[in-house]
Amino acid sequence: MAQNFKSVTHCIFDMDGLLLDTEPVYEEVIRQIAQTYNKTYPIEVRLKLLGTTEPRTAEIAVTDLGLPISPQEFLEKFQKLCRTLLANCPLKPGAERLLRHLHTHNIPFCLATSSGEEMVEIKITNHRELFKLFHHRVCGSTDPEVKQGKPAPDIFLIAASRFPDKPDPSKCLVFEDAPNGVKAGHSAGMQVVMVPDERVPLEMSALATQRLRSLEEFQPELYGLPPFKN
Question: What is the pLDDT of residue 83?
Fold first, then answer.
């Protein structure tokens, strides 16, 4: 991992597993679908799915788990279960503090999630006021401009271009939990702060600028941003 931090002016946040603790729900949903067909859901497939768009999740899950259904059938089951379970997802530690800090200091930030618009609305049910602080959001599964999902850089480049002042990618700091997201941010020419699941192997953080255990550990001043007061 690189340790030469450069100053930034804008921040771009992933959502699932970074700001919202949705990954246990996704894990349970896919495990339930797999069990229907007497299949297991191993960790190596789970790591492969982190940060992918919903259609890509369906393709990989059906193929890698050997499910006797089409990706479209998987997606319908997946979305139905998610609608039931995702509305009560809690925020991850340090997320609210960081977002409110950036907002207070007029640092522009946006959301770049692989989720579709409908799923985002369900997940932020209990956090609407906080998510109104984002300048804009790019929803990879439903945004027509996002031609390729993570690990392609599309979503982050589009997210940066939608700020009014269109910052250079080098001035954007990405926050991610997933290896696919880190690859995408790195390919976009951005620094990436990675806050992964503890089960993500260290070598999958190689392209990250910094790996943290929690957003609570983030030090804004390393990137030229206003420091926390306490």
Answer: 86
pLDDT in tens, 186-215: 999 999 999 998 888 899 999 999 999 999
| Distances in whole angstroms, Cα of residue 227 to Cα of each of 18, 81, 108, 169, 213 | 20, 41, 16, 22, 19
From the list 14, 143, 154, 177, the catalytic residue is 14
Contact by Cβ (8 Å): 197, 46: no
Q: What is the pLDDT of residues 35-87, one digit of tens each?
A: 999 999 999 999 899 878 889 999 999 999 999 999 999 999 998 998 888 98
DSSP letters along 179-217, please? Answer: HHHHHHHHHTT-EEEE---TTS-GGGGTT-SEE-S-GGG
d(CA 33, CA 39): 9
Residue 16: active-site member: yes
Out of 16, 143, 154, 177, pick the active-site residue: 16
Residue 177 annotated as catalytic = no
| Cβ contact 175:193 at 8 Å | yes
Whole-number Å distance between alpha carbons of 91 and 14: 13
Rounded to 5°, the CA angle 164-155-70 comes to 145
